């Protein structure tokens, strides 16, 4: 696919500043992306795998936000489980893309910028912009496809989902192949890694799953299956892709926000399918007296949630994706439960992170006088 002229021609996976990589060879090295306050080189660890036969080159990156380390655990597991016997092509594995933020357990760089809003970067810009340009030149410009692994932001969790520009045929191809139950359609924010990589001819998707500062077993399992699926779809690995019985492409999502300050009682969990007017969370004071209730505005699925039940007015509580026309909430729930596959196990495990209580009729109308919605 074409590359934008200002970035020059696509680079070879075989030739790096650290040395050449022969067909059939795997090499570990460190790519210099910046310098620290002390003047030491900041070098991110990379593993490059090259098959004996030519084929596509795919990058898999994690910790673009330095506190989102589920993907770091995924790439570590991929490197050590011995399942990456490539038939053709090449693989660029980057367990920590944003090392300066990773070392600080932070989402952001020391200059307070979000690296995932600074692509494709520039040679003479800010710290973040220069790092972005180096990453773009050395990783994206060698790749034909990309997979970037993320989690929810701090004090939130996400049910595993793919973010992808489904209007791009090759992006849609690998998004479907990844095999997540949920796909959020969109180009991504301006300056984001996946949007800018896709724009210059490297179709890239993002997986979102789990929480910051953790390596969660089911999220790792889901991501590893997804990456393997993509490599199989591209003919780089043996085997058939494993796709759930139903994949839902979400065109519209909303964050339901707290109307009052208080302490939340959750009625749903990440990944749950809900119907219009279903109770999502009840807001009470610290003595348990109801103040307000959040209800689903449409049939949808819970993409993500806050993990902190104490809220002030306007704080995000639940990220809800609207089910597309023709998709029945009951059927989606039934397909998942009958399949008894990874999606059902994911839902059950993530549910244990929340105290979820069904809202009964007896609890309705228990608010203080004049204190309910």
Automatic annotation (TrEMBL):
This is Succinylglutamate desuccinylase / Aspartoacylase family protein. Its cofactor is Zn(2+). It comes from Aureliella helgolandensis. InterPro entries: AstE_AspA_cat, N-alpha-Ac-DABA-like, N-alpha-Ac-DABA_deacetylase. GO terms for molecular function: hydrolase activity, acting on carbon-nitrogen (but not peptide) bonds, in linear amides; hydrolase activity, acting on ester bonds; metal ion binding. The lineage of its organism: Bacteria, Pseudomonadati, Planctomycetota, Planctomycetia, Pirellulales. Residues 55-233 form the Succinylglutamate desuccinylase/Aspartoacylase catalytic domain. Keywords: Hydrolase, Metal-binding, Zinc. Pfam families: AstE_AspA_cat (PF24827).
């Amino acid at each position: 696919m074409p590359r934008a002229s200002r970035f020059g021609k696509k680079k070879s996976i075989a030739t790096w500043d650290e040395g050449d990589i022969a067909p059939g060879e795997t090499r570990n090295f460190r790519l210099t992306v910046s310098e620290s306050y002390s003047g030491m080189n900041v070098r991110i660890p990379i593993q490059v795998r090259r098959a004996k036969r030519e084929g596509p080159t795919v990058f898999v990156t994690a910790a673009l936000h330095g506190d989102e380390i589920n993907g770091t655990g995924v790439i570590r597991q991929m490197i050590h489980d011995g399942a990456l016997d490539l038939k053709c092509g090449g693989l660029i594995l980057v367990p920590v893309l944003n090392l300066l933020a990773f070392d600080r357990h932070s989402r952001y760089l020391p200059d307070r910028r979000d690296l995932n809003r600074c692509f494709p970067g520039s040679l003479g810009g800010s710290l973040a912009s220069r790092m972005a340009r180096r990453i773009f030149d050395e990783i994206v410009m060698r790749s034909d496809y990309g997979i970037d692994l993320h989690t929810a932001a701090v004090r939130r969790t996400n049910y595993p989902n793919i973010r992808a520009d489904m209007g791009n045929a090759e992006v849609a191809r690998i998004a479907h192949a990844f095999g997540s139950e949920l796909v959020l359609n969109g180009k991504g924010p301006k300056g984001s890694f996946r949007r800018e990589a896709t724009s210059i001819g490297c179709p890239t998707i993002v997986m979102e799953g789990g929480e910051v500062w953790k390596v969660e077993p089911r999220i790792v399992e889901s991501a590893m299956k997804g990456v393997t699926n993509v490599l199989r779809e591209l003919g780089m690995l043996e085997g058939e892709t494993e796709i759930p019985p139903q994949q839902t492409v979400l065109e519209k999502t909303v964050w339901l926000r707290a109307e009052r300050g208080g302490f939340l009682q959750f009625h749903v969990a990440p990944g749950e399918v809900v119907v219009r007017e279903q109770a999502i969370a009840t807001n009470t004071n610290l003595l348990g007296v109801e103040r307000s209730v959040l209800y689903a505005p449409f049939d949808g699925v819970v993409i993500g949630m806050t993990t902190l039940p104490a809220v002030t007015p306007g704080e995000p509580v639940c990220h809800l994706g609207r089910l597309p026309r023709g998709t029945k909430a009951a059927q989606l729930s039934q397909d998942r439960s009958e399949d008894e596959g990874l999606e059902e196990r994911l839902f059950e495990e993530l549910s244990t992170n929340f105290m979820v209580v069904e809202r009964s009729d007896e609890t309705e109308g228990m608010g203080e006088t004049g204190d309910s919605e």
